[in-house]
Design brief:
Blueprint lengths: L3 H38 L8 H8 L1 H32 L4 H12 L6 H12 L4 H8 L11 H25 L3 H9 L4 H12 L1 H16 L3 H6 L7 H10 L4 H34 L1
Helix pairs in contact: 1-13, 2-13, 3-7, 3-10, 5-7, 7-10, 8-9, 10-13, 12-13
Length: about 280
């Protein structure tokens, strides 16, 4: 005979599964199903692997992949180089001023990505603000658009808040007593930075770097507007395959590889985080 305790446990598990049903349905319909269709299209050519074969055999595709990964890495590194000292500097400011500075940094999140990209188009064009100011002192006009510099600048402006927020959370979690103890033992500010602060906020930096890197891998609007054909990234390449050459299997294969790259990034961060958490528990 089943005991009352086991019946309550069974009912609780059933209620938990019922609560998970709506989220599971949404995930299946709007995430798993589209990915399944995309995966099927990537094998829908004359032969099953023709899309992948054409993708890997194309020198242009490898160039685009190199551009995409290199740009994502550069943008991530520059965002980290800006966000870490900025968030550390916020600690020395009065709280109202620090909140104002943080809000000013995250303000671009409230504005459309398209609007922000158009703003850089206006600032960097031949008749734009930068060249107009340069002409006042007898310099320019410079070709500031349709190159990697303009693409990186626009992407950094858009993605910087995604680095600042996790790094700032990690900095706020620092125990000030640890820093005071290090200073009382004669440690210099530089030694405190390298041996205490940076190791303690490393997880926040890694989280921000993952967010920026993954978002940069799939960027489309900003490189399309501020770059040229030689600055093509993977999202633009997929758009060309879909809308111009109508090579859907190869486009789907490129999209599948991009998705796998994102999943690998998340898996690496999860593995590193679990190892660090395990080290802290031990």
């Amino acid at each position: 005979m089943t005991s009352p305790a086991s019946l309550r446990t069974t009912r609780r598990k059933g209620a938990d599964l019922l609560l998970l049903a709506p989220a599971s349905l949404v995930l299946a319909v709007f995430f798993c199903l589209p990915l399944g269709v995309l995966f099927a299209i990537s094998f829908s050519g004359k032969t099953a692997f023709i899309g992948y074969e054409k993708l890997f055999a194309s020198a242009a595709a490898w160039k685009v992949v190199t551009n995409t990964v290199g740009t994502a890495a550069i943008v991530t590194a520059i965002c980290a180089a800006i966000a870490v000292p900025f968030c550390l500097a916020l600690q020395s400011l009065p709280k109202p001023l620090a909140r104002l500075a943080l809000m000013a940094t995250t303000l671009p999140l409230w504005i459309s990505l398209l609007v922000r990209s158009y703003a850089w188009l206006y600032l960097l064009s031949q008749e734009g603000v930068v060249n107009a100011l340069a002409s006042l002192i007898g310099l320019g006009p410079w070709q500031l658009l349709f190159n990697w510099g303009a693409v990186w600048l626009g992407m950094i402006h858009i993605l910087l808040p995604y680095m600042v927020l996790p790094v700032n959370n990690a900095v706020n979690a620092l125990d000030p007593n640890v820093v005071r103890a290090a200073k009382s033992l004669g440690a210099s500010n530089m030694r405190i930075l390298w041996t205490i602060k940076l190791p303690l906020i490393a997880r926040g930096i890694a989280t921000g770097a993952l967010l920026v890197f993954v978002l940069a891998l799939g960027f489309y609007v900003t490189p399309q507007m501020l770059g040229s054909a030689s600055n093509m990234m993977l999202a633009t390449f997929i758009d060309v395959l879909v809308n111009r050459t109508l090579d859907w299997p190869r486009a789907a294969a490129a999209a599948v590889l991009l998705t796998l790259a994102v999943l690998v990034c998340f898996a690496i961060l999860s593995f590193v985080s679990d190892r660090k958490a395990g080290g802290l528990v031990r």
